[in-house]
């Protein structure tokens, strides 16, 4: 297996991807017209929205910003980023997101390159990923440098058998059930948890806290520097960094 990329100093373009549980049924082609697929799953917008943080590091965007916002020293820290929205069916078979959004994937499982950073969000309750989806999740986890599961997206690596012996979290209201379903995983009641390259978060916008921590870990200020490109955009974008143990909220689960 090839060496995983150093995210802090990649030295090449990074491939960042969202795996969409689209529910494509290949056998539907036998009974339905071409490109008419079966889509029982919907991905939550807020779970995958933290992907947009990478725009703050993306050379294609950063180079367009005036020096009054980002000076040349910080622009030099930008990274060439290639984005991949991946489903089993791929382009031409839209995947559904909440709030009525229909998203056209950029890649299928066959055409997608090895992903350096993988993000998965929640699919609707009761949906069972296809064997092809679970196989692609396992392959992506093996080849990536970081795997981010936000909110109910934790069910994807769980069903793929990737959480045995791992520390993880998920939506607070669901942790009791997760402990019963997967006792070989250490479930922590935290906004986000890191175990090696696996990053997991609590519900919905807790994924933004996790993304703040993730970006700070790999692209925060270097020794001797007061600021970094990622750090600047964390401030400009008001990315949250709330108490990891939920001590800032008045309710408990």
List the helices and strands and how they pair.
Elements: E1 14-19, E2 42-43, H1 45-48, H2 59-62, H3 72-75, E3 81-86, E4 95-97, E5 101-103, E6 117-120, H4 131-143, E7 146-149, H5 155-159, E8 167-168, H6 175-181, E9 186-187, E10 192-195, E11 198-201, H7 206-219, H8 229-236
Parallel strand pairs: 1-3, 1-6, 2-4, 6-7, 7-11, 8-9
Antiparallel strand pairs: 4-5, 10-11
Descriptive overview:
- Helices cover 23% and strands 16% of the residues.
- By secondary structure, it is an alpha/beta fold.
- The chain has a single domain, classed as Class I glutamine amidotransferase (GATase) domain (Rossmann fold), CATH 3.40.50.880.
- The protein has a six-stranded mixed β-sheet with strand order 3-1-6-7-11-10. A three-stranded mixed β-sheet has the order 2-4-5.
- Helix 7 (206-219) packs antiparallel against helix 8 (229-236).
- The relative contact order is 0.16.
- Residues 25-39 have low confidence and may be disordered.
């Amino acid at each position: 297996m090839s060496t995983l990329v150093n995210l802090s100093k990649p030295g090449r373009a990074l491939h960042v991807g969202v795996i969409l549980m689209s529910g494509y049924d290949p056998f539907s082609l036998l009974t339905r017209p071409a490109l008419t697929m079966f889509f029982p799953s919907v991905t939550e917008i807020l779970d995958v929205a933290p992907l947009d943080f990478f725009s703050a590091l993306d050379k294609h965007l950063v180079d367009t910003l005036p020096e009054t916002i980002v000076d040349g020293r910080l622009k030099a820290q930008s990274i060439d980023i290639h984005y991949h929205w991946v489903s089993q069916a791929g382009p031409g078979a839209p995947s559904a997101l909440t709030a009525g959004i229909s998203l056209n994937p950029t890649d299928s499982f066959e055409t997608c390159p090895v992903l350096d950073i993988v993000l998965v969000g929640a699919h609707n309750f009761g949906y069972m990923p296809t064997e092809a989806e679970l196989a692609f999740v396992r392959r992506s986890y093996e080849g990536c440098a970081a795997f981010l599961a936000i909110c109910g997206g934790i069910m994807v690596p769980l069903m793929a058998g990737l959480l045995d012996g791992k520390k993880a979290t998920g939506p607070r209201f669901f942790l009791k059930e997760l402990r019963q379903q997967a006792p070989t995983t250490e479930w922590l009641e935290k906004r986000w948890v890191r175990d090696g390259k696996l990053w997991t978060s609590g519900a919905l916008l807790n994924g933004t806290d996790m993304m703040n921590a993730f970006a700070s870990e790999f692209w925060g200020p270097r020794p001797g520097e007061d600021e970094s490109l990622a750090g600047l955009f964390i401030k400009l974008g008001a990315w949250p960094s709330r108490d990891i143990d939920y001590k800032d909220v008045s309710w408990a689960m």
